[in-house]
Write a structure and sequence with these properties.
By secondary structure, this protein is of the alpha/beta class. The protein has two domains: 191 residues, no CATH class; 221 residues, no CATH class. 29% of the residues lie in helices and 31% in strands. The chain is built from twelve helices and 21 strands. The strands form two sheets. It has a 16-stranded mixed sheet that branches. A hairpin with a 2-residue loop joins strand 1 and strand 2. The chain is elongated and about 140 Å long.
């Protein structure tokens, strides 16, 4: 009995011990559990690779998107620079831009040879543009030459103001600059038209009224290492050719446009062409049998003097053939284009426009500008203007001013006449001058237009010149007047590679 009790006690003690603390025996692994583990590990690896690929793709797409947006900002910045320069060119001497604000350029043969190369047109080297800080470009551009910087011109020994600074102009997006553009102006050296006006092919002197403007647009993007350089920006380079139209630089003191002319000269008028002809004629219908040249020569012989060009008096010559051969002047023989100038181009260029018939007396004549050819072109007192009268203009007490006066009706002037620049009587083509004083110094053009639009046609101008009226050709004053018109963009291209 005692042994049985002891056995029962021992059994219960072992059973309780097993329940209270003995570790359970681990289950034996099966083949199915091993396969599941491999599948899980494979799936984790696949998901990790997929996540990495998606991350890389998202990063790449972000970089592509940013580069694309950055490039477009750079393109628009460069185009803004070109347009900015074109707008600033009005009234400016191109030589002042070519020589920079200080008016001084390096005259060494090596530098002048370099200035004739295409690469000289770059305001900022492309490698520099790619790495510079567009918010603070001074560190990279502090030593940049001022040659070709658009400016107001050297005056009385003081450098001109940089209109588009060498450090460029920033375009802002919020508190930070999103882009910046740089502009440089160079001459069109080596071209036939340039050599005709500048036989020495001086890269800092304009001979034909044409300059090359190049703009570099820079916009920030992701920074990356490219060889030995760091690229922080997208860069776009564009170039345009700006031309100062020489349409009205006809040489003659007075030019008459039309198929015929009705003219009378009385008193002691003087029309002096100097080196050029006194009265030039553009015959718009050379085959109609009428000769405006003969009519003007006969009228001029009856009174006053018409001299110039080494011709016997009266100095009258047909300039039609020469005008047809000149791109700028040929459209003067096109009635619709000439009328387009009077109705569209002149109003856009005008500083003041007066509609309807005008009667300007000594007390009612508006300010019409001033220009002293004995002073530099950029002197503060120089203030030539473009004035348009859409209708008749009568000035019985005289007329004085400077710049360009366009009259689409008839022009009558007595008293004292003192005009410096151009007077264009285009439309009704009626001109009556019976004045004294200095007269017109520069050029005078008269043409009659009838009809409108494509139906415009030329008529015969009616010209009466009497008293002591003077009309004197002055090339410098004509050039001054031509500077008041917007320049024309005659060429445009993107510089996408390396300059030749």
């Amino acid at each position: 009995m005692a042994n049985d009790a002891n056995r029962r006690h021992t059994f219960h003690h072992r059973k309780n011990s097993s329940r209270l603390g003995a570790p359970p025996r681990p289950p034996r692994p099966t083949p199915e559990s091993g396969v599941a583990l491999l599948v899980v590990m494979f799936m984790l690896g696949l998901v990790s690779i997929l996540g990495l690929v998606l991350t890389m793709r998202a990063t790449t797409e972000a970089r592509i998107g940013d580069n694309s947006e950055s490039h477009m900002r750079a393109v628009y910045a460069a185009l803004s620079g070109l347009e900015h320069a074109r707008m600033l060119a009005r009234g400016i001497e191109f030589d002042a831009w070519l020589r920079g604000p200080d008016g001084v350029c390096d005259n060494t043969p090596a530098y002048r040879a370099e200035a004739r190369r295409f690469s000289f047109r770059l305001p900022v080297p492309v490698a520099t543009a790619q790495r510079l800080d567009i918010a603070a470009p001074l560190a990279d551009l502090g030593a940049t030459s001022d040659d070709g910087v658009p400016n107001t011109g050297l005056f009385s020994g003081s450098p001109g103001t940089e209109l588009i600074p060498r450090l460029g102009i920033a375009q802002w997006a919020g508190p930070f600059p999103a882009s910046r553009y740089f502009v440089k102006v160079a001459d069109n050296n080596g071209e036939a038209s340039e050599l005709a006006g500048d036989a020495g092919d001086d890269p800092f002197s304009d001979g034909d009224g044409i300059v090359i403007v190049r703009a570099v647009g820079v916009a920030g993007t992701f920074a990356e290492q490219v060889g030995a350089n760091i690229r922080r920006n997208s860069v776009a380079v564009y170039e345009s050719r700006l031309k100062r139209a020489a349409t009205w630089n006809l040489g003659a003191a007075m030019t008459v446009v039309g198929p015929a002319a009705a003219a009378s000269f009385t008193g002691t008028p003087e029309i002096a062409g100097g080196d050029a002809v006194g009265i030039g004629v553009l015959d718009t219908a050379p085959d109609d049998g009428a000769s405006p040249e003969a009519a003007l020569r006969a009228a001029a012989a009856s009174g006053g003097t018409v001299s110039g060009g080494g011709l016997s008096e009266p100095s009258v010559r047909d300039l039609t053939a020469a005008a047809r051969a000149d791109r700028d002047k040929a459209w003067l023989l096109d009635a619709s284009r000439l009328q387009g100038f009077a109705t569209r181009d002149a109003p856009q260029a005008a500083d003041r426009v007066y509609d309807g018939g005008q009667l300007w007396t000594a007390s009612s004549t508006p300010p019409l500008g001033a220009y002293d050819k004995d002073l530099p072109w950029n002197a503060p007192s120089q203030a030539p203007r473009v004035t348009l009268v859409r209708g008749d203009l009568a000035a019985p007490d005289g007329l004085s001013g400077a710049g360009v006066l366009v009259v689409t009706g008839g022009l009558e002037c007595a008293g004292t006449l003192d005009w410096r620049g151009l007077i264009l009587v285009l439309g009704e083509g009626r001109l009556s001058l019976d004045a004294g004083g200095p007269g017109v110094a520069g050029g005078l053009v008269v043409g009659k237009l009838t009809g409108t639009g494509a139906g415009a046609a030329f008529g015969a101008p009616e010209i009466e010149i009497g008293g002591a009226t003077k009309v004197t050709a002055d090339r410098e004053l004509v050039r001054m007047a031509l500077r008041l018109f917007p320049v024309e963009r005659v060429g445009f291209r993107e510089i996408a590679g390396i300059d030749p």
